[in-house]
Amino acid sequence: MVNSRMISSSYSLSTSLIMAEKAYSVWQNQFLIFSNSNTMTSESINMISKSWDLLSRDPQLVTRFYNRLFDIAPETRRYFKDDISKQSEKLAHTLNFLVMNLDRLDEIKESIEDLGRHHNKMKIKAEYYVYVKEALLTTIQETLDEQCESGMVEAWDHALSHVASTMINAPKKREKRKLSLWARLFPNKAAS
Question: 14-173: CATH homologous superfamily?
Fold first, then answer.
């Protein structure tokens, strides 16, 4: 005799799995939308730059971000050593690099893909990018507080979605360059 409770649990579990797959698909498509858009409007770039001028002065910004991330997704804590000060410094430098190069996203794509490959080697799950983005956007908004202008968070959302999409969709291996570094530096010598 089949227990009706077992059928109900089985149905509930399969329904939950289907819903989770659909949610993941929607989330993944959200990132894929940005992978086709390697440019940002000058207005968005200006908003991010203006906000970064304020945000980068806050020595606790990255610490608050990690605290929020670990609150949202405690399972991500295992990817960090007990002292995350070095990682905090890396994140601050990465954000600064991104902000300084928002008008050249095509040019920094390879660097972003390298970062994605590094995260992939560490077995970072794709869903963690959602948690990181959520924690970062919330931290940005709370840090800016009254100085947060309309459209700033959306501009950051667009930039972070683009970066996450590029990292997630990074090819497994770096493509070979068409010309070696030597050939690019010394074109006359390489030909001979």
Answer: Globins (1.10.490.10)
Query: What distances in angstroms separate CA 5 from CA 10, 11, 136, one per listed residue?
Result: 8, 10, 42
Amino acid at 167: M
Compute mean pLDDT per 10 residues along the chain, 192 residues long, and list them.
51 56 51 53 96 96 96 93 84 95 93 93 92 98 95 96 93 62 56 48
Whole-number Å distance between alpha carbons of 72 and 15: 24
Q: The dihedral of CA 129, 45, 48, 150: what is its sign? A: negative
Q: Evaluate whether 54 touches 144 at the Cβ level (below 8 Å).
A: yes
Domain extents in the chain:
14-173
pTM for the structure as a whole = 0.71
124 alpha carbon, distance to own chain's centre:
11
List of residues 6+ apart from 63 with CB closer than 8 A = 88
Any alpha helices (H) in the chain, and if so which ranges? 4-35, 42-55, 61-72, 85-100, 109-121, 127-144, 152-168, 181-185, 187-191
